[in-house]
Every structure is written in structure tokens, then in C-alpha cells.
Amino acid sequence: MRIGIYGAPFSGKTTVFKLLVGNDANEEMGIAKIRDERIDFLSKLFNPKKTTYATIELVDLPGLSPELSRKDKNQILMKIQNVDAILWVIRAFDDESVARYFDDPGKEAGYLRDELLVRDLEIAESNIEKLKNAKRKLSQIEEMQLKALEKCELALNEGKFVKLTDLSAEEKNLLNSFDFFTLLESVIVVNLDEKSFRAHDYKGKASIEKLARENSLSMMEVCGKLEMEMNELDEEEKLEFLKDLGLSESGIQRLSKVLYSSLGLISFFTSGEDEVRAWTIKKGTTFKGAAGKIHTDLERGFIRAEVVKFDDLKKLGSMKEIKANGLMRLEGKDSIVEDGEIINVRFSV
Fold this sequence. Notes:
One of its GO terms (cellular component) is cytoplasm. This protein is of the alpha/beta class and 349 residues long. The chain folds into two domains: 2-262, P-loop containing nucleotide triphosphate hydrolases (Rossmann fold); 284-347, Beta-grasp domain (Ubiquitin-like (UB roll), Roll), CATH 3.10.20. The chain is 44% helix and 21% strand. The protein contains 15 helices and twelve strands. The protein has helices at residues 13-21, 37-46, 70-77, 105-132, 140-157, 169-175, 194-199, 205-214, 224-231, 235-245, 251-263, 287-294, 296-300, 310-316, 319-324, and strands at 2-7, 29-34, 50-52, 54-60, 85-92, 185-192, 218-222, 265-270, 275-282, 302-309, 329-331, 341-347. The strands form three sheets. A six-stranded mixed sheet has the order 2-4-1-5-6-7, sandwiched between helices. A hairpin with a 4-residue loop joins strand 8 (265-270) and strand 9 (275-282). The longest helix is centred in the middle third of the chain and has 28 residues, at 105-132. The chain is flat and about 65 Å long. The mean pLDDT is 91.
């Protein structure tokens, strides 16, 4: 899973990037661990040689300055082609020592939205022209692509995201190769100062909420500066810090969950003495498909899966008690995996 981090200069997006991936990442790419208390519990229970959290790959874009030419902006946006979602970071913190391009976070959000719309409109127009000027008869698939692109062009000219356009599932699949940014899921992260974060209020909040609502975007608020300070604390101090803020988990933990929810992702687990591991799959994945996530041999030779619900294991405390209470079940290849299930695949190759 690959996420592009998008924002204006001095918005704090690189701070958010480093909070997610750690300071050892390179300038543009990094891997974020999805912290999960369920994995922590399983690791304590099984005491494995290795514990592996689910991960997300992140790409940190250069700041998209309003002063840049269209060509330079497009070169920056090209860096997030082939991502699965876009993380917008919007500045709503006051700091006189850090320059800013927008005095209103609502205007900054509008600018970021408009840049994606303009880029997508260029993509639609150029591909429509290419298909219409083709010196041969279009294939049936190309005719369908042209029709879908014309729908997109109309919607984008009206300021509407491609993902909200009246497109069939087949048409959306035909558009995947064009890399429309507004076809992707997006999450808005508003980066606040401590005063605004504690007050749950800031300039431009209503307009950002309106933009998110109208474009079907997820939205959350963090204070990057507080998150950085929190990272320097031990676990006990961190819990006290969060309690003082009226929170049960850090902004980065909340952000990880929002990303999963927005992208329609869930986790299942494998566990044992060698390794406890979280695996990321799309909601609606079958047990056979989940087996393939672990290894292609498991998918190819799938017989059935032994399945335990995490909550049952946490309540009873051991696999022995799970079996004694008849709470381990067997599932076939076409059954659907639910979030938090612990799976052992039986297979034969």
C-alpha cells in the first residue's frame, strides 16, 4: 500500500512523514509501521522470535508552491503517480519563525483541491484529443474509455472529483491507467498548534470541513509539534501526556486507522513461536486470497483455514482454551475474512 503526502511548503507535511516513518527514512520514501495493540497482545502471548506489524509505504512530495509554473507543479505531482491514496497536510498552526503562503487554512485546502482538479482535467483533455484524433478505428475498449473520459472532463470542469462522477465499476477500471488523482481516496490532515488543538478550533475549520464533506474526503486533526515531543517520552510518560490532552492514542495512531478505514483495508494475523505477523488485505477478501498474501503456494494448494477471532483469544488467554470452548472454526476458500481474525492455512501442493 502506497500513500503520497501532499501539501504546500511549510505545512508540516515532512514532520508528519517523519512521525509516520521515523527519522531514518530517506528524503522522499519511507515505510510506516501500523501500530496495533492486537499484535502487541499476540506477541506477549506467543513470545515469538519475530514480530511484524503491517506497513504502508509513504512518498513525501516537495511542497507545491503557488509560485511554481504549471510544468513544475506537474513534475511534482508525477511523483505520486501509482499511489493508492493521497494524504493532504494543511497548515493551521501559528509560528512566526516559519514562513507561510496562506493566511487561511481554508484557502490552502482549496488551493490543493484545485491543483488536483486542474491536473486531472489536463489528463482528461489530452487523452480525449488523442483518442478522437487516432488515425484508425477505435477498439471497443477505447470507445468505452473515450466515453468515460468525456464524463470525467464534464465533471472536472464543474469542480467535481472523478471518484464522485457517475461512472460504472467497469468504467472506473478502464480509467485506472490514466492515473487520475481525484479518483483516489484522500485523507486531509490539519496540522495545528497546541492552543488550537486543545481548543478544537482554528481559522478555516468550517470551510475545510465543507470541502471534505463535498468531496467525500476523510479528515482529522493533529498537532505535529506535540507529536514530536511525545516521541521523546517513554511509554508511561506518553500515556500521561495523552491523558492530559484527553486522548487515548496518539495522532499518528489515529491517522493509521483513518488511512485503513478510508482505503477499505483490514488486518488478519498469523501467530506462532517463530513469528507473529499482521497482514493487510482489502475488505471482502476470501480466505484463499488471504492465503495468497502469505505465500502463493498456500493459495494454490489451499484446503481450508483454521480461524480464531482475536477477541475470543484475548478473553480466554490461550489456544488451548479456544479449542476447549469450541471457538476455532474451519473456513473454505470462498468465505470472507473479517478484521482481526487469526488464521492458520491448511494446504497441499
